[in-house]
Fold:
Amino acid sequence: MPDPTSSAPCISVEGVTKRFGPLTVLNDLSFTVKPGEKLALIGPSGSGKTTILRILMTLEEINGGHIRIEGEQLFHMPRNGGLVAADERHLHKMRAKIGMVFQLFNLFPHKCVLDNVTLAPMLTAGVDRKSAETRAMELLELVGMAGKAKAMPAQLSGGQKQRVAIARALALQPRIMLFDEVTSALDPELVEEVLNVMRRLAAETDMTMLLVTHEMSFAHDFADRVLFFDQGRIVEEGPPDAIFRNPREERTQIFLKKIIAAGHRV
Ligand SMILES: Nc1ncnc2c1ncn2[C@@H]1O[C@H](COP(=O)(O)OP(=O)(O)OP(=O)(O)O)[C@@H](O)[C@H]1O
Structure:
């Protein structure tokens, strides 16, 4: 259980560098996240927001720096000039702490909604079918999809698929949830139903949550703290009111002006 009175960070990113070939995507990046904190990562396209989420999920390795999740190093084996997770067991243990929801829902197309949610607990955590289904139905209830438990993904709208993907990510009972532009592939009328689920999760659970989004008004309402990324670094951070209403840094001001000019609410 996250302990909000604890001063130990839930996530600690220290001097992380990530390169793709000659391109430095994260440049000596550092930040910490408190247990239970809701963080929004905003910034221009290509500034490294998705990359840091993928690194936290160990979907990418790093070239330097340290990452600790609940005090434990995520990467520590040097290989080919980079750092990778120590071994499969460690990787498995660390991954179980974190759930991620992606822009594209990536549901298993040949499995019904219920099986999509029960698969990981049964296969990777050894949960028996009955317990996995009971838990899955509770999660589907939470995201408003219990009535579609037997439906196939192709029968669902984008918003419904994304709500199932959220239930699936919650099925392993992660302590940290990462959301990567989860509404950007949705038709505008379906966005709100997914945001409502995330509002509920933020209000009703004490999970630590990191959100990458271009929905600035949602970021404002959702986050305890906002990090503004540019060129692989955090240029400015603070409470949503300070960042959105009164940004100090010129680059933040320019970014927000562009967002408003593009017709988005902040
Ligand atoms: N696997 C990869 N190989 C090469 N370059 C990559 C790879 N993944 C990301 N990049 C590059 O890294 C940079 C950062 O990408 P990233 O997706 O983290 O940015 P972002 O801030 O999330 O952008 P957006 O808001 O558009 O999603 C971009 O220039 C991108 O092209």
User: Anything to note?
Assistant: The chain has a mean pLDDT of 90. The chain has one domain: 35-58+87-261. Residues 35-58+87-261 form a domain with the Rossmann fold fold (CATH 3.40.50.300).
